[in-house]
Amino acid sequence: MLVTLAVIAAIFFWLSYSIDIKPSLTPQEKRFTRFSYEKMEIAMKKPIAVSSVKNPLESIGGQEKDYPSEALADIIPPDKAGGAEQEKGKGKGQKLSLILIKDRTKLAIVNGVVVKEGDLTNMGRVKKINKDGILLKDDQGEKWLKIE
To answer: What digits encode the pLDDT tens for the residues 37-52?
Structure first.
């Protein structure tokens, strides 16, 4: 029984290799086979002039009264707590503005500078960032900085 199956299988494989079956081509494939390399003229299209579209910035016109005419830096009072102490370096006057934690990305904004875990700043190395604050380590030890 096993020998007959082996003989039938051998005959089947021999027939499949001896018969050359060519797939028929689709009409698109036949067109590709008849491709000619003749030079063709390329018609250049000219841009269409559109006169009815207006500049979106010009359409605002009367809404300019809602925006301040002065720069925001001139309107906002200077930060008295962070001024000179911030320049001296570590400790006082540090302001944590934002903490962003998404997936494996942890970022924080301290005194207007974006930091991540492991960054070295003027107030020390950022050891850890979590939702409550950031852990800073310097020569004096570790200190938590919370959002104000």
So the answer is: 777 777 777 777 767 7
* CA dist., res. 146 & res. 101, Å (int): 15
Q: How far apart are CA 127 and CA 135, in angstroms?
A: 5
Q: Contact at 8 Å (CB) between 121 and 115? A: yes
Structure tokens at 134: 């950031």
* 114 and 108 Cβ atoms separated by less than 8 Å: yes
Question: pTM for the whole thing?
Answer: 0.39
